[in-house]
Amino acid sequence: MKFLALKSRFKARHGERPLAWAQLSHQKVRLIVAMGGITFANVLIFMQLGFRSLFTEGATALPESIAGDLFLVNPSTRFIGARGFDRIRLYQAASVRGVANSTPLYIEDGVWAYSQENISFQARIYAFNPKQQVFRIPEVTQQAVKLNLPGSLLFDRLSRSSFGPIPQQFAEKGYATAFLNQRRLAVVGLFNMGNSFFIGEGNVIMSEANYRDLFGEEALKRVGVGILTLEPGADIAAVKAGIQATVPGVEVLTHAELIAKELKFQESTPAGPIFSFGAIMGFVIGVVVVYQVLYADISDHLSEYATLKAIGYSDLALLRVILQEALLLGILGFAPGWVTSFFMYGLLAHITRLELVMRLDVAVTVLILTLIMCVASAAIASNKLRSADPADVF
Amino acid sequence: MNPTPVIAIQNLTYSFGKGVLQKTVLADINLEVNRGEIVILMGPSGSGKTTLLTLIGALRSVQTGSLKVLDHELQGASKLKRIQVRSQIGFIFQTHNLLRCLTAWENVGMSLKLHQQIPPSERRERAITMLQAVGLGSQATDYPDHLSGGQKQRVAIARALVNHPPLILADEPTAALDRKTGRDVVDILQRLAKEQHCAILLVTHDNRILDIADRIVQMEDGHL
């Protein structure tokens, strides 16, 4: 209704359609084919960017969830938790001037099975002293006290669905059990953290004590990440330098550096470039489609454009018409492209159980890419416009 | 009234090609067309009529000689200047050359759009008034594909005349029409030109329409 009112007002004021729109809408079939082409290109770009974010996001879920000022890791570890270091080093670092508190985070892989009959999956186990603040996840902090129960753990809702319907069961019955390294454990709470695509499929959090029960006393000597809290007003850089000078065999990282290290590992995987390349292909297809449409439009109407030149239109005025056509096409093609991609994301997320969501920043990126694509095509196609010689119309 | 002629040509020479292939199409042309005068230019094919018309219409650059159209010297005129001159001339072509995607009145409106001083809100009214003047008031919202040949040519006349140009250039406007519709078209053209006191330079082969002319100019091998 609003649109109609606007349209009639537009008609009442000028009564005249812009030439670009008249030109485009005159040949309905061509318009639909063009929109289809742009929609196709858009869906392609959306899918590739979606896949890329799928593989590259979640990479920093773990480091972003850890609270602390400085972090100690094994210098040769490629990603967090791949290799541990000797707990003695953590004690040594704790004695460095400026460090207020130190606590270890243990990271291990365990074999998870929802029930004994089910196939098993690799779960990442994080263990810490529940009296300490290690995670900056409010749900974990609130439920930390429950972890003191023997054989208890917290379960990550964002684990793969193959880990079993733990969240549903927990919500319905108030408890759930599963097997970890063939020992029956109780799920006493849930939290949200998520995984990077390449490391782990699900997360659980437990206490140091339960971790020791599962992996033995020796396991507590190998720390995944040493977490240091500094005294108020301490200079992070100075403390970091102090630890580096006195404690051998560890790498000291700030929070930002810890995140950067994890990201660097993720980016060394080929997923990012592969899907970026796919997105570029979509862009190129879009340019070709829009170019073809505009070129055909100009060729078909060459005598008309020449006539317009003859009666006094400048090249620039006609170039503007072509640009308007391109932008109109871009917007008209983007809308169905976005809708299609939205449903494709939903469908793929349903099938693959991966977290594919239509995000605003991705949508805006694709819209801008689409408009650039259309303007680029218009710029190439406008060469043809120059061949419209007004002297030929007589 | 403007005492100076709308077209003043002195010693105009024009040739195509270069070097040994150079072919002179217009040689030493002198011509004046006064305000409100209808001049028919006749001559066999290849005599240079159309080339002369495109030069007067500022569609080609003048090579040698002087060509003044509406008080603008086109000898050495810039591209921008030529575009400005063109917007003050009404053009009628052999084929109608209407934009197929626009309705009759929108086609006429394309001429009005060139003149910024005409408010957009008036375009429709002006265009339809002009279409009524050529007898197409009820076809204003039809697309060219739904109009007959004669009707299309009348829309083209409306497009050429809607801005009240002091000069109309027409290239065989009746060539694609049968005898009767051709007659109707030139009658309308003549009537409106007299009403608006506008000069017409019309190129034609058509002997049947010579009576509308105030003056007939014969052209042969680039000479008048």
TrEMBL record, chain A:
Membrane topology per record: Multi-pass membrane protein
Primary localization: membrane
Entry-linked Pfam families: FtsX
InterPro entries for this protein: ABC-4/HrtB_transporter, ABC3_permease_C, DevC
Domain of life: Bacteria
Entry's transmembrane regions: 29-47, 274-294, 326-348, 360-381
Location in or out of the cell: Cell membrane
Keywords, comma-separated and alphabetical: Cell membrane, Membrane, Transmembrane, Transmembrane helix, Transport
Gene Ontology terms: cellular component: plasma membrane
UniProt domain ABC3 transporter permease C-terminal: residue ranges: 278-390
NCBIfam families: devC
Protein name, per record: FtsX-like permease family protein
Native source organism of the sequence: Myxacorys almedinensis A
Automatic annotation (TrEMBL), chain B:
InterPro entries given in the database record: AAA+_ATPase (IPR003593), ABC_heterocyst_DevA (IPR014324), ABC_transporter-like_ATP-bd (IPR003439), ABC_transporter-like_CS (IPR017871), ABC_transpr_LolD-like (IPR015854), MacB-like_ATP-bd (IPR017911), P-loop_NTPase (IPR027417)
GO molecular function: ATP binding; ATP hydrolysis activity; transmembrane transporter activity
Keywords from the named record: ATP-binding, Nucleotide-binding, Transport
Gene Ontology cellular component terms for the protein in this record: membrane protein complex; plasma membrane
Span of domain ABC transporter: 7-224
Stored CDD domains: ABC_MJ0796_LolCDE_FtsE
NCBIfam families cross-referenced by the UniProt entry: heterocyst_DevA (TIGR02982)
Protein name as it appears in the record: ATP-binding cassette domain-containing protein
Organism whose genome encodes this protein: Myxacorys almedinensis A
